[in-house]
Design a protein that fits this description.
CATH architecture of the largest domain: Alpha-Beta Complex
Strand content: 25-35%
Structural class: alpha/beta
CATH topology of the largest domain: Quinone Oxidoreductase, Chain A, domain 1
Bound molecules: NADPH dihydro-nicotinamide-adenine-dinucleotide phosphate
Length: 325
C-alpha cells in the first residue's frame, strides 16, 4: 500500500509518498481503509522537529474510514464498520491502524469526509468551550485565527453558549468567514501588535477586558492575549501556529489581574473512553442538527501532503484540510 513516509526532519518536502508493507492489526487494534485523513498543525510540529517523533514514521492521527480487519480481543467493531479517530497511527496512508479503545463509530447521516474533519478539531473545540473554560451568556471570548479550522468551530460554539465573540483574522476574506460563523467583532490582527492589539480588543468590548482568550496562534499573539483579559480572566493557550510561547514568570499573572493561564491538549480531555464518547457524540450530533457547520477548506490527494502543509503554514487556508488517499 502507499503511505507518506518521513525519513528526515525538515520542510514540507520531507513528506514523501512511498510503497510500504501492508499492516496487520495487533491485539485491540483495527486495520482501517482510510476514506479521508485530517491534516492538523501538530503534524507540521512533528515534521519540523518541534515535537519529537522516531524516524522514519508515517504522519497523521486523525481519519475516518471502513474497518478491514480486527485484531485479537476487539469487541464492538467488525469489518465494514464506519469508524473515526483523532488518535490513530499513520493516517497519511491508504490504510492505517486504529486502537479500538480510541475509535468511535460514525453515525448514519455523517459522511466519511465530515467525520474525518470533525474528530480532532471538533473534540478540541468541545473540550475548550465545555471543560477548559465553559464560556457563558453575557461573557466575551477572544478567538484568534477565527477563520482557521479551530477558529471557526470555537466561534460557533462560543456563540451557541450565548457569548460575545471577538475574532482575529489576517485578511478580509477570512473576516467574512469568521463573521458568517457568528463572530460579533472582527479585528485585523495583522494591523496591530501586542498592547495596540489588546487596546483594540478592549475598544471592541466596551472598554472591558474579555473573560477568555482561545489562542492557538502562540508566540505572536501571547502578549496581546494576556493584555486583553479582564481581572481573573483565562488565557487558554492551545497551540503554536506562529511558534511556541517563550517562558514566562508566574508573577505576570498577578500583575495582569489574578489571571489564569492554561496550556491544554486533547489527549488529557478524552483519556477516559466515556469522555471520548461524550465529546465525539456531541460533535456528531451538533453536525447533524446544524449547531456546528464544518468548513472543509481544501482536499488534497495523498501525494500532495507536502502542499497541504505548505498551505497551512503559509496562512493560505481556511477551515479544515483533508487528504484523500
Ligand atoms: P488553522 O486552520 O487555524 O491555521 C492556523 C492559522 O493561524 C492560520 O490560518 C493563520 O490565520 C494563523 N496564524 C497566525 N500566525 C501564523 C503563522 N506565523 N503561521 C501560520 N499560521 C498563523 O490551524 P488549525 O485549526 O489546524 O490549528 C490551530 C491551532 O490549534 C494550532 O496551533 C494547533 O496546533 C492547535 N490545536 C491544538 C489542539 C490542542 O488540543 N491543544 C488540538 C488541535 C489544534 P490568519 O491568517 O487569520 O492569521
Amino acid at each position: 500500500m502507499r503511505a507518506i513516509v518521513v525519513s528526515e526532519l525538515g520542510g514540507p518536502d520531507v513528506l514523501q509518498l512511498s510503497d510500504v508493507d501492508n499492516l496487520q492489526p495487533g491485539p485491540g487494534e483495527l486495520l482501517v481503509k482510510v476514506g479521508a485523513a485530517g491534516v492538523n498543525f501538530i503534524e507540521t510540529y512533528q515534521r519540523s522537529g518541534l515535537y519529537k517523533m522516531p524516524l522514519p514514521y508515517t504522519p497523521g492521527a486523525e481519519a475516518a474510514g471502513h474497518v478491514l480487519a480486527v485484531g485479537e480481543g476487539v469487541i464492538g467493531f467488525q469489518p465494514g464498520d464506519r469508524v473515526a479517530t483523532s488518535d490513530g497511527r499513520g493516517s497519511y496512508a491508504e490504510q492505517m491502524i486504529m486502537s479500538a479503545e480510541r475509535t468511535v463509530h460514525v453515525p448514519d447521516g455523517v459522511d466519511i469526509k465530515t467525520a474525518a474533519a470533525a474528530m480532532l478539531q471538533g473534540m478540541t473545540a468541545h473540550y475548550l468551550t465545555q471543560s477548559t473554560y465553559p464560556v457563558k451568556a453575557g461573557e466575551t471570548a477572544l478567538v484568534h485565527a477565527a477563520a482557521g479550522g479551530m477558529g471557526l468551530l470555537l466561534t460557533q460554539l462560543a456563540k451557541t453558549a450565548g457569548a460575545k465573540v471577538i475574532g482575529t483574522v489576517s485578511s478580509e476574506a477570512k473576516a467574512k468567514l469568521a463573521t458568517e460563523a457568528g463572530a460579533d467583532e472582527i479585528v485585523r490582527y495583522d494591523q496591530f501588535e501586542d498592547e495596540a492589539l489588546a487596546a483594540e480588543v478592549l475598544r471592541r468590548n466596551g472598554g472591558q477586558g474579555v473573560h477568555v482568550v482561545y489562542d492557538g496562534v502562540g508566540a505572536s499573539t501571547f502578549e496581546a492575549s494576556l493584555a486583553s483579559l479582564r481581572p481573573r480572566g483565562m488565557l487558554v493557550s492551545f497551540g503554536n501556529a506562529s511558534g511556541p510561547v517563550p517562558p514566562m514568570a508566574p508573577l505576570r499573572l498577578s500583575q495582569g489581574g489574578s489571571l489564569f493561564l492554561t496550556r491544554p491538549t486533547l489527549v488529557n480531555y478524552i483519556a477516559a473512553r466515556q469522555e471520548l464518547e461524550w465529546r465525539a457524540g456531541d460533535v456528531f450530533r451538533w453536525i447533524q442538527d446544524g449547531t456546528l457547520k464544518l468548513r472543509i477548506g481544501a482536499e488534497y490527494p495523498l501525494g500532495e501532503a507536502g502542499q497541504a502543509h505548505r498551505d497551512l503554514e503559509s496562512r493560505k487556508t481556511t477551515g479544515k484540510l483533508l487528504l484523500i488517499p
